[in-house]
Amino acid sequence: MRRLIAQLIKFGLVGGIAFCIDYGLMVFLTQICHVHYLISATISFTVALVFNFFASMRYVFRGREGDSQVRLFIVFATLSVIGLGLNDFIIWAGVSVHIDYRIAKIGASAIVMVYNFITRKLLIEGRGSQTPVVAPTSDEVTPDATPQS
Fold it and tell me: Mean pLDDT, 10 residues at a time, over the chain (149 residues)?
């Protein structure tokens, strides 16, 4: 349970940074560069995806033993494309009922965040994975794991 909590915290931190990249770039492209909000949302989501992949693979998720980085990226990217479709649909639906695109983006991000964690947990790590999810916490390290002089 501690590993899952630690993983959720790391997921939240990485996701928070990715959200700032995504949201900031979307607003910049829409407001300053006058790019259509759905195109801006797609571009910003894609940029944040690249950051999110590398940060998530380093700090949050561990693939199953023997998985190649190419396989992990393909799974991650495929799940993210589905998340992008969900993201853009929610923003479009919000705007179509007169919700500001920036507010719709916040709602979309919350929904896609839950989708991302669940699908990545299941498809990148797999159920019952024997690979550690995160590095063990200090109270989980056993004395026999310490090298003897």
Answer: 85 92 96 96 92 86 72 85 93 97 94 90 67 41 43
